[in-house]
Every structure is written in C-alpha cells, then in structure tokens.
Amino acid sequence: MDRDPGDDRELPDGNPSPGGDGNLGPGRHSTRRGRSLMSWMQRSARRYNPFGGTSGRGSSHSSQHSHQSDIIHIQRPLHRADEIAPTSRDEPMFEVTDDHDDAFTDEGMSATDPMEQTGSEDRITRVCTGDDWVPRHHSRPNELSQDTQPIPGPSTSSHSVEHLRQSQQLIDKQARASSGSLNPVGGAARSQSTEPTEDPHTMTSLGKPLHRLTEKQKKKLFFIEALRTRYKVDYDKVQPIPYIKDKLYCVDKVYVEGGFEFMPTEQVTRGSGSWERLESYKSLFSDRRIQSVRRIFEGEPGYGKTTVTLQLAYDWCNRVEGSPMRDVEVLIILRMRQLSGIRSIYRAIEVYLLGSDPRVEEADIAAIIRESRSAVVILDGYDEYPDQHSRRETDVQRILKLDLFASTPVILTTRYLPDYLAPITRRVRLTGFDEIARDEYIRKAVVGEDKIALSIIKARLKENPVLEDLCQVPLVFVMFAHIAHENQDFQNFKSVTEFFRYMIRCFHEHLKNKSKELNTVRYSIDENEHAALDKLAFLAISQENQQITWSRDGMCKQLGQDFYETYLALGIFVEEEVVSYNSSREVEVRFYHKLFCEWYAAHHIVYILSQPGQSVSLDKLFRHMKPEDVQYVYRFACGLNRDVGSSIIQYLRGSRGTFQFRILCLLEKSGDAEGTLVSVRSLCSGTVTIKGGDNRLLQRSTVQLLDIAATRGIPVSCIHLDQCFSKFDVTNACIVLTSGLRVTSLKTVKALCVDGFMGEGIIPSRIEVTSEELLGLLQTCETLEEIRFEGREFLLPHSVPAEMIPPTLKTRNIMVSYEDRRGTIHQLNWDDGQWQTTTNEPSLRIPQEELDQQWALEELARLTTDGILVSSLHLEQCFSKFDVTNACIVLKSGLRLTILKTVKVLRVTGRIRETVGDCKGIEVTRLELLGLFQKCETLKEIRFEGREFLLPHSVPAEMIPPTLKTRNIMVSYEDGRGMIHQLNWDDGQWQTTTNEPAFRISQEELDQQWALEELARLSTDGIHVSCLHLDRCFSKFDVTNACIVLTSGLRLTNLKTVKVLHVGGFTGTGTIPSRIEVTREELLGLLQTCETLEEIRFVGREYHLPLSVPAELIPPTMKTTNIKVSYERDREHGVIHQLNWDDGQWQTTTSEPALRIPQEVMDQQWALEELARLSTDGIPVSCLHLDQCFSKFDATNACIVLTSALRVTNLKTVKVLHVGGFTGTGTIPSDIEVTREELLGLLQTCETLEEIRFEGLEYFLPLSIQAERMPPTLKTRNIKVSYERYREHGVVHQLNWDDGQWQHQITVDGSVRVDIFQGKLDQQWGKKELAVLSTAGVSINRLYLHRSFSNITDNTQSIILTSGCTIPVLHTVRELRISYTDVDLEVFLRILAYTKECTKITWIIFEYCNVPDEVDAKLIPHLLKQRGLKVYWFPKTGEEYILDLGAGNWKKWRRQYGRD
C-alpha cells in the first residue's frame, strides 16, 4: 500500500472532535491523503451506494463535480478514538477520505492508493469523533437533505443488512421521484425503471451488488473486512525504539529479514538435528521441503516472531506481490497470551478480532474458515499461552493434535516446543540478524544511503565484541543502531553491563530533554531509584513458570503512579489492551524486552546478597533461574557488584559445563577484558570443543570467548566441532552450528576438527559440503593449517576443480582430510583437486542413501585406477541383483557397480533383525552367483547376511567352472538366526557350520513360513536346534496330529530335534490378549512329540497351564527324562513355577515373589493356587497386589473376599498388602466400607504383614480407631497402614498406633483439585482432606461438589453437604463447581455471599443444575464485581452461559456448533 510521506500532518489535539480545535470542521481543508484505519468502512459504503450516480474511476471530471452533498452517516462502535494508538507517521488515524475505489477485490485491496487518482473538490471526509464517523465536504458546508435518512455503515452493531437494504430502497425511491432531473447526489437522472441499476462501481468484493449477496456471503464479507481493519491497527504502530514514542512505523517500512532455518526431517524431532537455510520469509509457504499444515516458528525473545506475523498480516491486507499471503482468502492471527480461559478458537476470534459486531457469530466463523478456498491460522506466542498445561482440553491443544483444522495450515510461534506435536509438524526457527541483515536495517531505518554513517555504526559494533552475541537479537540491535547513530559520545564497552547501563541512561536523558519542551509532561523520577521495580522483576523471573506481564492497576499500585508513568514514557514498559473472554477490556503491562526484566531482577539479587550479616542460600535464590534461560541475570549481577560477582562465580563452579560461562561472568565482574585474557589464552591454547549435546548457553559462551580471542589476536590451537556442524555460510563467512549459533571469529584458528556420526545404526541427516563452502572456509581461516572431517553424514565434493583453487591456498598447502568410519583417510591434493587415499588396503561401505552410493562409487573407481586393493566392500541393505548380461551389481537405487576387479571380500548384508515384517525376498540364481565370482578377479570371500536373500538350494557340479574350484572362494550365507551355511565346491551343496543353531519364530506369517522350511531342513539333516522361540505366535498343541498350531494357522510339525522350546507371550501392561489354555493332554502330548526336548518354558499372562498334572497320567518315560517344565506368568512378579514330576504339582523357585491378583476370574484362580503353594512352602510374599478386585474382609473366616466371590485365605506369609482401586476417570465403582473390625482382623490374620496400602475412591476406612480397641500386639508390630483416596487430592493418610488417629502427608508440590461425591463416607473424608490442605496453605484449583451440595448456612459461613457435613470458609479455593443440584434464588445468593468470604474464588460453575433465570443486580455484592468473579452455568442442553453481574441476567457464553 503506497504512502505519501509528505502528507503526514497532525491534528491539533490528537483526538479530533467535531467543532473543536481537533476537528477539521466545515470549510477547513485536510492535507491528509493516505488511507485510514477504517478504510474498509468507506469502501463498503461505496459498494452499497444507492444513489446510482457515476462514481467510479471511469466517470468524467464534470460528473464528479456535479455531485450533491448528501451525507452518509456511518457509526462505528467497534473501535473508539481513544482506543486506537496513533499511526507510525504521526498522522490523524481517524480521518477517511471518501474517494471512489473499484480496485478492491475479494482477496484484498489494491496497493494503489485511490487518493492519488482524484482531484474532486467534493471529496467527502469522515472524521472519527468517539463513536461516530462524521462526514463533511472539503469545499462547502454539508447539505444534508431533510428527506434523506442516515445509512448505517457495514459495522453498525444496532442495524442489520436488511436495514441497509431498506435505506437503499428509500433513496432509490427519492431518485425516481425526481423524474429526469439530477438525482440528489448530483449524478445523471435515474431511469424510471423500478429495477435497481447495477453500477459496476457499487459492486462488492464478491463481484455482486449487495442486494444480490446471500446472507452467508454478506457475513463472509463483513468478517474479512473486520480482520483487515483489526490487523491494520497492529501493523501500523510498530515502535522500533522504546523511548521514542512519537515515531511509529508501518511494519513494511522497517521490517528487515533475519535468518530463517528449517529442519528437513520427515518426523518432527526435539533434538538439535540438522538445519537448512530458507531464502526468505516468503518461502515459508512455497518451499516444498516444509510444506505441511502444521509449522512451528521458534525463536528467542526479540528475534522477531511477532514482527513476522505483522509482516504477513500487512502482505495479506495489501495483497503484496510475491508474498505467500497474496492468494490467502482468510488469515487468522491470535495472540496466545490473550486466550486465558477461552477453550473455543472460534470464540477467541469473535472476541479478539471482531469486537462487538453481532452479525458474525461463532458458527458463522467456523463455516467461513471451513468453506474458504484458502485459510491460514497463526497462533502467536505459545510460550505465553496461559492454558498450555490445562487439564481441560482446549481448541489450541486440539489444533496441535490435528483434531481441529486438520486441513488448514496453522503456524505456531513460540520460544520452546509444546509438549505434543503432530508427526507432520515442520520446524522453522529464526536465527536473528546476521551482518547482511544488520546493514540492511541500518540503511533502511537509521541512516538511509549515508555510507559514512553506516560504516561508523558498524565500526562501533566491531569495537565492542562483548555485544556481538547480544546484537544478534534484532530487537536489541535496533536499539544499539539508533543509540550508536544518535549519540556522539558513544564509547567502547568492556562488558554487557556497561552497555546496558549506558543504554538506560540514554533513555532517561532523552526523556529529560523532551520534558524541557513546551507543553510537555515533566517527569522527576530519579533513574537510580527503582527498588520496588527490582523486586517486582525478580519475583516474576524467579518463578518456576515465568509470567512477566501485569495488570496496569496492579503495577501502579506496587510502583506508584508517577513511577509507572515515567517508565512507560521511557519505553521500558509497554501497555497492551486485552479483551477478556466476556468482552471486557483490560490493560496489561510488560517489559519492552525480557532483558529489561533481567536487568532490574539482577539489581534485586545484588541487594539481597550485599546485605551485611545475612546468609542467603544461592541454591534457593537461583532455584528456578537456570543460566541457559536467564544468562544475563547472572552476568548483570556480576557486573553490578564485584563482591556479589565473586559469590555467583563460586556458586557456578558447582555446576558442570559452566567453565566458559564463568569466564564471561568474570569479564562482567572485572569490567576489563585484560583481566580475563589469562583465562581466554588458557582456553585457546588447547582444544576448544563445542559439542552438539551442550546446552545453548555453553555453546553461546564458547562462541563469545572465540570472538574476544579473535579481537585480541589470541591464536586458537584447535576448534573441535563434535556433532554440531551444520554448514559453512559463504555469504557471511561463518560456521553455522546445528543449534543455530554462528561461529564468525575464525581468523586465528590453526586447526579445525569437524566430527560427526561414527557409530552404527541410522545416520543423521546428510551434510553436504560444496566446493564453494570448503574453499570459503579455508580462506576465512587465515591462519588455518589443518582441517579434518570425520563422520558418515558428511558428503564432501568428489573433487575441487583446479581452476577454482586460489593460488594463495595452493601456497599455504593446508592439509584437508576426510576419514570415514572404516578408517579410510582421504586427503585433498592441491595440485589437481583430487582426493588421495592414504590407507594401503582400505575398506569401503555402500549404504542405502543414493548420495553416499555416488561417493562410494567414485572412490572405488579411483582405487581401481590406482591399482589399490579393497580389503572389504560392504553393500549394506542396498543389493538388488547381479546383472549377468552387463556383469555388474545393480543397487536398489538403480546405480550400477561395475568396478569389482580389486575387491578381496564382498559382504552383502540385508535385514538382520529378528522380525522380517513386509521384507521382500531377493532371489540370487545360480547364474548370478557364478557370474559374480567370475567378475571379481581378486575375490577371496563373499558373504550374504540377511533373511531376505534366497540363494539357490545347490549349484550343480557340472555348472561350476574349474577356475572357481581352483580359486576355492569362500561363499557363506548367514540367515540371521545364528546359522551359517557354506558352499562346498566339490558337490555344490550347502554345509551348515553351526552345530546347534537357535532361531525365533515371530508373529509375521512370512517369517513363520521361512522358519518352517528351515526347521524342516534341519530336521531332515538331523541337526539339533538348541532353542526354538515362539514369540507370541503359539495358539495350541494339536494332540491328534502331534503338531503346534501357530496364530497364523500354520502348523509346526518338525519338533523332533528341538532341545529347548520357549513359548513367549504377553508380559507387559494393558489389555491381555485372548486366553490360551493348555490342558494336561496338550502339555503331555507336546512333551512326548519333542523327542530330544530338555526344557520347555511358558512365559506370558495369556497362558493358563493346568493347576496340576495327576501322577497317574504321567508316562514313566517322562519321569525318567525329567524334562524341565517352567511357567512364568508375569515377570513383574518374579515368580517362576516348575513342574515336579514326582507328584505333578508346581513348585515355586523364587525366594520372595510378588503376586498380583487382577479382576479376571481365571487369573484369580491361578493366583490363589500360587499363593496357597507359597504359603504351604513357607515362602514369604514380598507384595500381594489386589488390583480392583477387593470386596471385603470376612472377619469370621479370616479371609479376603474378592469381587468374583473367590476367597483369599493364605495370608500368613504376605509382607505387603496393596489394595488398589479406582483412581482414574469415569464411573466410580460402588463404595466399599472397611470397618474397624475388618481392618483390625485383616492386620491380625496377616502374621508377617509389615505394610498395607489402600488406594482408590471406592474404599472408605474408619475415620479413627479407639485406642482401647487396638490389640497390644498390633501396637508392638507397628504395621504401616496408609490410605490414599485420590491422587489428584495429593493427601496420604497414615494410621498412628498411639492414638488411632490418621496423620496426613501432602504429596503434591503446587495446586490440587478436590472432588467430593454424594456418599456420606466420601463427604466425611473429603471434608477431612480439605481441612488438611487448607491448613497447609495448599492452593486448591477446583472444589467439585458432585451431587453433594445441599445448602449454605444462614450465616453464610459454611457449605452444607447432603450428608449434613459442613465445609467452612476456605481461603485457598480458586474455583467452586456444583453439579446436579437445584439452586433457588435464596440459595444462589447465599452461594455468592459465601464466595465473598472465600477471597480466592474467581470462578463459580453450576454444571447440570437448575438456577434462577435472573438475579437482582442490587443483591449481588459489589465486592464480587470488583474482584472480577465469573459465574457460569452449563445446563444439560449443552449451552453455556455467563452471569452479567452488572445486570443480573445470563448471557450466552459459547454456542454449540459443528467443528472441523
């Protein structure tokens, strides 16, 4: 959108009003010709123009002059004059010139300013005065016809579109009545026809006149125009310099692109990974490598995340050519910090972007976004989102999980990654300002084309290396550039603390100078007096979850009005108007940048640590302030006070990996770089290592020290980049690390070692180093003598063209080497730019990646040309076939391996893992195998390893050439199960070299087929199988056919040579597969079939073996062979049962097993048998866990009755009894009351019991036990009895044997929620836990009374529950939720009065209740209105309402609508 800088004139009072000094009244001309914030209002009025005159660009000059002065009065209550900040050019924002513009289209308005295309003196100007837009003529007084009614504007809250149409028809009627004369507006006479004229200049942006638009199209039009209006308010008031309030800019005038990088991975990763550069922010949507419907923009504070969103908004509103926003139909931008308590994204759009316009509702917004041809949603500032850890799912969480807006592109800007990310999410990060971006900003916003001034600012930055890292932050660099340009006394700074102190002084000096001007406010606050602000900043930044925003009223109260206004004028504070979810407006305050908060927090730390005679724990002081998050707090504190700095540096010595950071703190403390040069020289004399696993603070500290070393000319012996190298940026002559940091100071480096991935497994993302990058790196490092690359991910150029090599590099003869993981070292020859191999007989590996394969083929060609033998060539999962015709190996990528003459050993590996899955077999025929041998002239051995290879069963002897028999090449095949087959050249048969192989059969049917064939061969050859493992594939033993039936239906018949049979099953947690019962007959039949079987093991919870085998059923041969039969149901318990052949019973081999009895009856039977055996054998049970199966304790029979009615009688040897119950969500089981008699009887029955735990909402233990009823033996044994009703409550009760009372332990750190249900015992225990939490001062997020609320006492001091229990006033509860209760007016008012006493309650929610339809507002305590209490009502109908405390009636809070 074009702007005329010469038209920036200011109205006298800033807020124009009709008839006053600030109003451009009748007869006064405006020099303002730019667009207004509300220009869409004038465009809409033109489109709905009913007058019918010729008003477009095509109209003649004379017709424009013939207009009459009928006035359109447009009301615009959405934005008041006092609610909108001045624009970036000190212009009157509220003046609108009514020029005719037909350039507006559906996508947006033209970038051409229509103001430049008219010379009409009859131009109508509207001036915003509070709520109204008052139009007037520039050249003559208004001539409003008495018959003409004001037409409501398109955003009038009290008028509908239908009203607009009626007004249009009224004026059409007036025009027709003129019968051939000029119409009231001065156009040509209108036709006598009753049909409205469709003038092209009155068309809407949808290509139709208003009266032909459907209601849906009108709403869409209003919606898009309201968005444009809202965004223009934001992007037109950018303030680059905090203390210069009178210079506001449009974002497009000052925006300079910093660095953008993306992570090119298929799956989102939270590690450092490898990052690649994006050319521009305009590539964010067009670059195919990051195309996705979910993108994350990461960046540290001040890196420009919000500025990018403003630039995108500007592009969208103005349809900027080349911008990705040009063709976007709907753009939604929401500030996440404003969305507290709003679960619906559509409600947020309605509240924050549409204001009070009632015509577009939530359901309309959902439909518009869903049906738009292209929409983009930007959620700005997720790290500031108040509800990101909310237990109640919000639409933002649904968006991240792809449950909402699944096909709509969504961008999330944040400092850190959310807890959950969809796998398709693409990560983009902002890397700050590099040198090019800095130069561009200085030219664009500071000095223009003044090259001398530009060089001065750059020189001042270069002279201050301590600021290099700080000035990568665009927001900080902007301040630096302007201060360096405007202050002639700009000095060299020895520390960051000095610079920040100087910058704060500049802020105050500027304000003082401005205060000397006439008619300006004078400020008298001393710049050194800010103790209250110091404490406020420290308390904000030292919390676990930093929240550095405050309400304006709260901050004024803490700091004082004068102090607040001074720091607001300084620009250190920034105000922001926030609209709450109930449409009320509040003003929030934050620091201009987090660095200011750290600066003042450091002052408070200095104050605390410098107090005489006080001992302060630094561990406690810095508990939530990690150096990597708030490094400048530490550095500022060290720079502000030397003694405090010494204490902090000593404290940092106890933290690992802080050596470099301690040097930076020492630099701040000394204030003189010379004082720390000894430490810097010591660091640089050895190897300076930057590791990929180091945190960003450590990497940043190391880079800053290298900057200091380069500035001081200190040589750096060696820089070791350990798995952190990303690329070399040729443009900016720096190394980019995987963390995004840049190493720019390389001039004094002697050696550079770049290490990568050298292990096995998946290789990280490839890093290609081009010839240009390699040469640029070598030229940048002026003193470099050697550079080494070691790692599988690096792809160096195959060669460096000799003509590209500068003569200086040939003269310096730098040693450039590359070592792969095979130990092969390649060294660059500067004469011809080729690589030479320094190893005698290197080994090569060709992996799956095509780039690696190309490199390896080039290397193999060079070795063959030089006649160097290759000791081993490893084809790793890339072999496809041998092409006999062309005598070459074809790789899976399609590349061909033709040069094999010098290979000694060829190793072809495939999938060696235990399961094959969907692996496709690769058949190697006899002809291929023989042709391969003949091609490799020096071949001595070839090995095939992998289960997908299908080699010929044999090679006929007559097909084997005599030369091959003479060479006797070793040909082997390892199938992945431990069996190695070797080809015998005499008869062409395979011989098995493994004596007793072992293999595993998985669940995959293909794997099972191969295993059956292999087992058949082994059985035929009489080869014993040491172990056959059936991994979750056993179904049953078919006694009739003497075979094992697998889950796939295949049958395993060849079992005669198996020595050990391992039947593995489900051993984890969760849903157990279908039960598999092994009967006595099946077990004995299986043992008899396996003639060589020595052991059989069943492991798994799904297997149910017979409880015993009658001795008369056991064949004598079984007893003689004494096969070991064992059964382990659950490894977590550690109980192994072994069958005793003498009596057919199971014996337990574990010393102190743990048992779990679940809800399933069959499991319970087995567990009871097991417990009985353990008890009989006198084996202690370390823990017996009754998992939601406890019913009661039968004191008469001294046994526990389970939910299945089975009884647990053998309890004498149990040490710990864990009675687990319901702890999750959903329907709670029936209450289970454990009486005093039951509890004491249970404790006495378990003779060895040391502890008993009850956990679950259904269990209710006695509130106390009278001391006289406790047996003395129990007091002596001192058994630990604990009871935890609900983990959400965070209270564990433990029985005290001295007095029979419960003692309470709080297990949570933070806030909890307490639920109280309708049962009497539940209410009694809930009351007890509330008292415990309240006494301990624990914050209760929610008190939920589910069917348990009855009334409030007359004095409104207690809640009465349905059981008669009372809950007193609680000062730690934040939300009171009442459900399934009828509440009349009297009780409703009592609840409000009770809430008045509970000072912390901010929310009351009535869920599925009947409440009064309305409440007399006079009866609502005024204190609750001041506190901002929110009262909600969620009836069973699904709608949601909020109580208007001022009016006393309910308003719809969120309507139900269909979502994506």
Give a concise summary:
The protein has 1460 residues and is α/β, with parallel strands linked by helices. It has 38 helices and 72 strands.
Euclidean distance between termini CA atoms:
34 Å
Shape: globular
Fraction of residues in H or I helices: 25-40%
Gyration radius over CA: 41 Å
* Biggest sheet overview: 7 strands, mixed
Number of strands: 72
- Number of helices, counting only DSSP H or I runs of 4 residues or more: 38
Descriptive notes:
It is a single chain. This protein is an alpha/beta fold and 1460 residues long. It is 28% helix and 21% strand. It contains 38 helices and 72 strands. The strands form 17 sheets. A seven-stranded mixed beta sheet has the order 6-5-11-7-10-9-8, sandwiched between helices. A seven-stranded mixed beta sheet has the order 15-16-20-22-24-25-26. A seven-stranded mixed beta sheet has the order 27-28-32-34-36-37-38. Strand 66 (1358-1361) and strand 67 form a beta hairpin. The protein is globular and about 110 Å long. It starts with 38 loop residues before the first helix and ends in a 6-residue tail after the last strand.
Characteristic key phrases:
single chain; 1460 residues; alpha/beta; 38 helices; disordered C terminus; 7-stranded mixed beta sheet; disordered N terminus
